[in-house]
Amino acid sequence: MIDIHSHILPGVDDGASSMKESLHMLSMARRQGITDVFATSHYSKAFPNRDPEKLRRIRDELMSRANRPVKGPDGKIKRRRPIRIWTGQEIFYSNSVIRLLEEGKLLTLADSNYVLVEFMPSVPYSEICTAVRNLSRAGYTPVVAHAERYRCLRKGKRVEELIDLEALIQMNYRSVSGGWHDATARWCKDNLKKRNIHFMGTDMHNIGSRMPDTKEAMSWMRKHLDSTYLRQITRENALRITENKIIK
Ligand SMILES: [Fe+2]
């Protein structure tokens, strides 16, 4: 699996608080079958990360530490599958975002044309549409982060309309958990069945309340989605971002 949404870099936002916690989060993710993680640290008022080189340096350091050989209990070097960490940011959309992207002050996903964008949960639908149109016009493909969070998208065929505007849709694994009494989980399952989702992400922040947790969602998705679509949203579409290829 490839995780397109995470706050894995230490000390830059409300995600991992230390290198030790980052490494712990990565090993939890690895145990769930994640091979690649996009480090999408926040760009927002609260976390104005506008220094891509700093984020790249921290990513390099974390990736090298995560892939250091480790000794097993028998004293022998254990072979682990390497984990790749791609650069990126979760960008809180505002009018200045396109200018900052063009000035190279914000990171796209793996230096591609794809941009992970987020909004306030109470955002009006028209604002998401404007953001999608503006980003597309500027040559970027917007990926709407944790789409289940925006109340305006619960109405009618708004998700389909955003896709028609050439937005791609990301959902958090954890939001799929929960029974039919849970309106968010219900909305998630419905949109997964309609194939409106392009990427699943953990949005992991720490090793506690917001840890990487794919299990419950994966077990539901394995039962209810066909395996080709499941592969696309958990791996192949994200892989296409790393190659800057078009996703349909
Ligand atoms: Fe996030």
From TrEMBL:
EC number(s) given by UniProt: 3.1.3.48
Transmembrane segments: none
Coiled-coil segments: none
Catalytic activity: O-phospho-L-tyrosyl-[protein] + H2O = L-tyrosyl-[protein] + phosphate
Keyword Ribonucleoprotein: no
Record keywords, A-Z: Hydrolase, Protein phosphatase
Domain of life where this protein originates: Bacteria
Cited Pfam families: CpsB_CapC
GO MF annotations, alphabetized: manganese ion binding; protein tyrosine phosphatase activity
Keyword presence, Hydrolase: yes
Family: Belongs to the metallo-dependent hydrolases superfamily. CpsB/CapC family.
Name of the protein: protein-tyrosine-phosphatase
Organism listed in the record: [Ruminococcus] torques
UniProt lineage: Bacteria, Bacillati, Bacillota, Clostridia, Lachnospirales
Gene responsible for this protein: cpsB
